[in-house]
Design a protein that fits this description.
The structure holds three protein chains of three kinds.
Chain A: E1 5-13, H1 20-28, E2 34-35, E3 50-51, H2 57-63, H3 74-89, E4 100-105, H4 111-117, H5 120-123, H6 137-147, E5 153-156, H7 162-175, E6 181-188, H8 192-200, E7 221-222, E8 224-232, H9 233-239, E9 245-254, H10 267-280, E10 289-291, H11 298-312, E11 318-320, H12 323-326, H13 333-347, E12 349-350, E13 372-373, E14 378-385, E15 389-396
Parallel strand pairs in A: 3-7, 4-5, 4-6, 10-11, 10-14
Antiparallel strand pairs in A: 1-8, 1-9, 2-3, 6-8, 9-15, 12-13, 14-15
Chain B: H1 2-15, H2 41-55, H3 62-68, H4 72-82
Helix pairs in contact in B: 1-4
Chain C: E1 5-12, H1 47-50, H2 55-70, E2 78-82, H3 88-100, H4 108-114, H5 118-127, E3 132-136, H6 142-155, E4 161-168, H7 172-180, E5 207-214, E6 223-233, H8 236-249, E7 259-262, H9 272-278, E8 286-289, H10 291-294, H11 301-314, E9 333-340, E10 343-351
Parallel strand pairs in C: 2-3, 2-4, 7-8, 7-9
Antiparallel strand pairs in C: 1-5, 1-6, 4-5, 6-10, 9-10
Helix pairs in contact in C: 2-5, 3-4
The chains are: A alpha/beta, B mainly alpha, C alpha/beta.
Chain lengths: 398, 85, 353
């Protein structure tokens, strides 16, 4: 039997809550976190809705007891909060009692500070400390520092599928015996850069996003961070650890179709799901719940629906996109949806797909729209990104 | 109208980095997308910004662009009828 | 454990590396910003595809197609790309457009190009390669993360040829900022004097270096990739013991190492790491460096990897990369060590095959 990858801890901060518990409560009460933007001054305030975390940078800095000289981007602040929760949840007292790594994902990195001080940097030295924090590896580096992880630390950025790939790499490293424990996940804060970037693509909704609805008009952006602690069978046995769930399968493929759009036949997504089944060794009919990528853009939801039909045929499992709650949190999305998938397994629950009215004409897929109880052993979670990057994760109870 | 068509051809070449295409090669009625000039959905988004910036025409649905950007002639007619600057 | 061979190389750099020859006509620079010598991109990329491509993408497409051609591979089973900054010029263009135009009249092209995985994605698009596609973005170990991933892919029986590369491009604004904070030397230092400059900061470069890795050796193989390790934090005191442990894990001793390839970038504060082993463990070993030729950038260590692979195959060391002068010998086991500003250290062992 091949090695298993246990999930022994998780942490999350999102627009629906600053802990796993708060997120679960919001999901159960169908309470979304989408609103008009307040933390960033933008001329698009009336044209967009976002999922913002209700903690200011100052509050986060205070909570983390960072010194005056700190140069944390908001991505790093959110990442540290979520990663620390995950490590605490896993009951780890000495992070270096076995070979521990960190794999994080981000798309914006320190862009929030760069766009704020872009020209001011040239004028005076006040904020020069943030210059070195621009690059995508910086938030990961800071999370590693805060957790005390010193060796294997790396960052993945594959747009909106980034943290699925971080979880995948972590699972592979455990299976390969290269690490005993690895903290995996992702963080992305909101920035003018991403808001305006998605705006130029004309895929932002001016109201609450409607995943899988025939009349969906685009996505809501969000900010979030989430991390999981993955541990090997040996560590779990040795320390008699409580296992929340397992990473059972994973698959990555490229759509190789277009720089931003998904293919009409969902080729990349289909391949990613098929690969995940191959690694997992289970059959599509064993999946109890699909946590879909479901961004609510016209292109993604149709392409993903077609891919799901290709993989599951006429027997499509219960499905929902939780992006109506949190917005699309880009590089963090797969990690927060991993937390929701694990919660689904732990509590035998399916979380609703908000704002749905009418099925997509071409596919007729109807998502779950109210909290639903049923035994859940396997959850499949999709994440797709620009550049055709398609990733699928399968989580299991045993 | 002829002047506007010429202006549009110049802008299309410049805005979309069509280095190897000359104004003469774009016929007034040639399709811009697909088999014609070979433009794609990202180009359509670039052209939507051009309509807004240079002619004061705001499109909110990228699908609207499909009809307007069929050819230079159709673009010119649409701009003439709807321009605010 | 499967073997991993370097079967093809492609290198776009500040040197004439897309032409034949092996650093036999070195280009010297007397500025602190080393640009790549642009290949004729049109030979590699059709104009319709090139018109929106960032420079990093173009460099990546050329280097990757050279690496594939060199290995006689058409479409690899995986594409793994490392980049510290992604397509920086487009990122700068989009940020400044947001500020300058107060968020109005923005166009999508530069935003799309600015996404870190653009290079890997566009290579896949060009090759119609639907396989595994990852992008690592972790400063000085972006490229080494790719190597680790590739080695695991072979062991998972998921691939038999993998395209791996590192790409970074200059961004004017970013370079200006890095000069302000002293990461680029304040004074202009010629590439020839770099490691003796005795001042803070380095000279910055750009480039795209790709290799085709395979689990099967061919008559074209350059070398075997034995092992790779990365360390986020490592003190100078612990460097030598780390190296010993790493070599021991690969059943190698210090004496087995015939050549060390070092990432010295002329920064007086952080080159001390290299000094430690130049004067310590590897005092009697031939030592080479390369950042005076490539410039420093997040994936510059991929240039070192290219250099080491070429030396193993040619069994020849270009004079201008030598730090010390040891008697010529067979270069069988080669150790690469790199770090940037005292963080993100990497060790790589290559072996002749």
């Amino acid at each position: 039997m091949s090695k298993r990858v246990a999930i022994t801890g998780m942490g999350i901060v999102s627009s629906i809550g600053n802990s796993v518990e708060e997120n679960l409560n919001a999901l159960l009460q169908s309470k979304h976190g989408i609103s008009k933007i307040s933390s960033i001054k933008t001329r698009h305030i009336d044209e967009i809705m976002v999922g913002e975390i209700d903690l200011s940078n100052e509050e986060l800095i205070k909570q983390l007891r960072l010194p005056e000289s700190q140069n944390y981007s908001r991505t790093a602040l959110l990442g540290v909060v979520a990663a620390k929760q995950a490590v605490e949840n896993a009951g780890i007292s000495d992070i270096n009692d076995c070979r521990t790594g960190l794999i994080s994902a981000t798309s914006v990195g320190g862009m929030d500070m760069t766009e704020k001080y872009y020209y001011q940097y040239l004028e005076d030295e006040t904020n020069h400390k943030y210059i070195g924090g621009h690059h995508a590896g910086d938030s990961t580096h800071k999370i590693a520092e805060q957790l005390g992880i010193t060796d294997f630390v790396t960052t993945i950025s594959t747009a909106c599928s980034s943290s699925a790939n971080a979880i995948m790499l972590g699972a592979r490293m455990i299976k390969a015996g290269k690490l005993d424990r690895v903290v995996v996940g992702g963080a992305d804060c909101l920035s003018k850069f991403t808001i305006n970037g998605f705006k130029t693509l004309m895929i932002l909704s001016d109201t609450y996003c409607k995943p899988f609805d025939n009349d969906r008009t685009g996505l809501n952006l969000g900010e979030a961070a989430a991390f999981l602690v993955l541990e090997s069978d040996e560590i779990v046995a040795k320390e008699n650890k409580k296992v929340l769930a397992y990473v059972s399968g994973y698959g990555n493929a490229n759509d190789a179709f277009h720089q931003t759009a998904s293919s009409d036949n969902g080729e990349g997504a289909t391949l990613a799901m098929q690969k995940a089944f191959k690694v997992s060794g289970i059959l599509p009919e064993q999946i109890d719940y699909i946590n879909a990528h479901g961004t609510a853009t016209p292109n993604n939801d149709l392409s993903e629906s077609i891919a799901i039909q290709r993989v599951f045929g006429s027997k499509i499992p219960d499905l929902s996109s939780t992006k109506g709650f949190t917005g699309h949190t880009l590089a963090a999305a797969a990690a927060i949806e991993a937390v929701y998938s694990i919660l689904a397994i732990q509590h035998n629950l399916i979380f609703p797909n908000l704002n749905f009215n009418t099925a997509i004409a071409e596919t007729g897929i109807v998502p779950v729209t109210e909290v639903k109880e049923k035994p859940i052993n396997y959850v499949l979670s999709n994440s797709f990104g620009f550049g055709g990057n398609c990733s699928t994760l399968i989580f299991s109870k045993n | 109208m002829e002047g506007l068509k010429l202006e549009l051809k110049e802008k299309i070449i410049e805005q979309l980095n069509l280095e190897d295409v000359s104004i003469e090669e774009i016929g007034d009625d040639d399709p811009l997308f697909g088999d014609g000039l070979g433009l794609d959905s990202i180009d359509a988004l670039e052209l939507i910004v051009m309509l807004d910036k240079d002619y004061g025409i705001k499109l909110t649905d990228p699908k609207e662009g499909k009809k307007i950007f069929e050819s230079v002639a159709i673009m010119a007619t649409y701009i003439t009828a709807n321009r605010t600057k | 454990m499967k073997n991993c061979y370097i079967n093809g190389l492609g290198c776009v750099s500040a040197q004439k590396t897309t032409e034949s020859g092996f650093l036999d006509d070195i280009v010297f620079y007397d500025t602190n910003i080393l640009p790549v010598i642009n290949p004729n991109y049109k030979e590699y990329i059709p104009p319709a595809a090139a018109r929106r491509m960032a420079k990093g993408v173009k460099m990546g497409v050329v280097a990757s197609s050279l690496a594939l051609k060199d290995a006689h591979v058409e479409v690899p089973d995986a594409i793994i790309t490392g980049t510290g900054m992604g397509c920086l010029q487009d990122s700068e263009k989009f940020v400044s457009a947001i500020i300058d135009n107060d968020e109005e009249f923005l166009t999508p092209t530069s935003f799309i190009q600015s996404t870190h995985n653009t290079v890997g994605a566009q290579i896949a698009l060009g090759l119609q390669c639907k396989a595994y596609n990852f992008t690592y973005v972790h400063s000085a170990i972006s490229f080494e993360s790719c190597l680790i991933d590739a080695q695991m892919k072979f062991n998972e029986d998921e691939a038999s040829t993998i395209l791996v590369g590192g790409v970074d491009e200059h961004g004017k604004h970013t370079n200006d900022l890095h000069r302000l904070i002293g990461h680029i030397k304040k004074e202009e230092v010629g590439s020839a004097d770099l490691i003796h400059s005795n001042t803070d900061g380095s000279i910055f470069g750009e480039g795209a270096i790709f290799c085709t890795l395979s689990d099967e050796k061919t008559e074209h193989s350059y070398a075997k990739l034995v092992d790779v390790e990365i360390y986020s934090q490592l003190s100078e005191e612990n460097l030598e013991s780390r190296i010993k442990t790493f070599l021991e894990a690969n059943k190698l001793s210090i004496d087995d190492i015939d050549l060390v390839v070092l990432g010295n970038n002329g920064d007086v504060t952080f080159d001390s790491y290299y000094k430690t082993i130049e004067e310590g463990l590897f005092k009697k070993t031939q030592q080479v460096y390369y950042k005076h030729l490539s410039g420093e950038f997040n994936t510059a260590s991929a240039f070192g990897f290219w250099l080491a692979s070429k030396i193993i195959k040619e069994q020849e060391i270009p004079t201008l990369v030598k730090i010390n002068d040891q008697p010529k010998k067979t270069y069988k086991n080669v150790l690469l060590y790199n770090q940037y500003r005292g963080e993100n250290h990497s060790l790589v062992v290559l072996q002749s095959c």
